[in-house]
Write a structure and sequence with these properties.
Structural class: mainly alpha
Strand content: under 5%
Shape: globular
Number of strands: 0
Order of helices and strands: HHHHHHHHHHHHHHHH
């Protein structure tokens, strides 16, 4: 009797990968047995879960375990250029704090030091491809189930919103911050739409690509809206193949998000038409925050003029704004670059920009040298990580995100993905003309 089963199914191991159970394909994709489950890596994962979900207050303990594991581990601790730049930035910020004439505690400086340690640990523990892949999926899962879900629930279920603008709690408790951090998560999610990922992962990433832009709009953050536009345009034009299909998909996602977004979002967005003239800028929103921000920017320029070198100290701009503009009071400058410049002076801003430029230039160079791999998932993911960062930096023109810990976590991911692609391109099997043209250390 002749079997009616497909020929591919007659022999073990020849079945199409898409016909195997989703859980099996996901396990194959993660390859958990090849992950270096070191003390530093486990501590780092625990730290991220704790500080993203806030289920328990053990973040400091988890990071202490990660640092201990890093010191006692067998691998040599890496000190690449981005880590060194951030450490110098911390030293300069400490000097700025010590010599500041404005009152305030040292907790912003302590928090910056913690961020530098997290950055160092992340760069060292994410050097293995599978370790990075598991962390990225964990990042997206935690972000979707807690900050994203919490923001949506606060708006639709608990009616908890500030001026109608929802957010979640603590690090994600400001609508502008929540929108900016969602842009970073969106950059990670789009990177998993590649055909190399199993269907279950692609489906989850697709849902994230629908929900994350919706959350950005739900926060009614003008900075987030601008960053989202930059992200969408760069993501679409960065595609060399199937550009029409990408454009259609983008339009479909945009139409879906627009259809379900509350009308308050579009009322706030429509206020952009008043932002082109200083005389009408106060009409951009009903609470008058846009007009107030214009005055704060003018105040920040006076503060920068009086403190061009050392600034006023990390976390002390609020006090400086109160002194310079008592009628406005203690306010944030709502511009990442002006904030860093005002709080740490011109040297601090140069160090901050140097860190960003170093990582971006390195990523672009590696992608250029590894252009033979441009159809691979790793090449495309690195490109989309860059796009996510560009969207975040564009949003930073209208929000203060220079000292957010999640930014430096994302920069560590960008570094790790760059080194992974560089190592992949250096293999003889990669097909590159000059394997030695890509170095594995910054």
């Amino acid at each position: 009797m002749i079997s009616s089963r497909p020929a591919a199914s007659r022999f073990p191991g020849t079945e199409s990968s898409e016909r195997r159970p989703s859980v099996v394909r996901l396990a194959d994709y993660l390859v958990l047995g090849q992950v270096p489950w070191t003390l530093a890596y486990v501590g780092f994962l625990a730290f991220f879960v704790i500080t993203t979900t806030y289920l328990v207050d053990l973040g400091t303990a988890a990071m202490a375990i990660a640092i201990l594991g890093l010191v006692l581990g067998r691998d040599r601790i890496r000190w690449p250029l981005p880590v060194c730049i951030l450490l110098v930035f911390c030293v300069w910020a400490a000097l700025s704090t010590a010599l500041s004439e404005f009152p305030g505690d040292i907790m912003p400086l302590v928090d910056l030091g913690k961020v530098a340690l997290v950055f160092l640990v992340a760069i060292n523990v994410l050097r293995h491809p599978q370790a990075l892949r598991i962390f990225l999926l964990l990042y997206l899962t935690c972000f979707a189930l807690f900050p994203t879900r919490g923001t949506i629930f606060n708006y639709y279920i608990y009616q908890y919103a500030d001026f109608g603008r929802p957010s979640w709690r603590l690090l994600f408790g400001n609508p502008n911050d929540m929108a900016a951090l969602t842009l970073l998560a969106l950059g990670l999610a789009v990177g998993f739409l590649h055909k190399e990922a199993p269907r279950l992962v692609r489906f989850g990433a697709f849902l994230a690509c629908l929900v994350f832009p919706f959350v950005v709009l739900l926060t009614q953050s003008r900075a987030g809206f601008i960053g989202l536009l930059v992200f969408a345009l760069l993501a679409m034009f960065s595609t060399t193949r199937h550009r029409i299909r990408s454009f259609v998909a983008l339009i479909a996602i945009a139409a879906t998000v627009i259809a379900v977004a509350p009308t308050d979002v579009w009322q706030r967005v429509s206020g952009f038409r008043y932002g082109t003239d200083a005389a009408t800028i106060g009409m951009m929103d009903p609470e008058g925050s846009a007009g107030e921000r214009w005055e704060i920017i003018r105040t920040s320029l006076r503060i920068i003029e009086d403190h061009p070198v050392l600034g006023v100290g990390p976390g002390r701009y609020h006090e400086a704004n109160l002194v310079y503009s008592p009628l406005i009071g203690s306010k944030s400058v709502h511009n990442t670059y002006l904030e860093v410049l005002a709080e740490t002076g011109a040297p601090g801003l140069l160090l901050f920009l140097w860190l960003l430029i170093t990582l971006i230039r390195r990523a672009r160079k590696v992608r250029h040298d590894a252009r033979a791999l441009r159809e691979s998932a790793e090449w495309r993911r690195l490109q989309l990580l860059e796009v996510g960062l560009y969207g975040f930096l564009a949003a930073g023109l209208f929000g203060t995100y220079g000292f957010l810990s999640m930014l430096y976590m994302y920069l560590a991911i960008l570094f790790a993905q760059t080194e992974m692609l560089a190592a992949l391109a250096a293999k003889p099997s990669s097909g590159l003309v000059s394997p030695t043209s890509v170095h594995t250390n910054v």
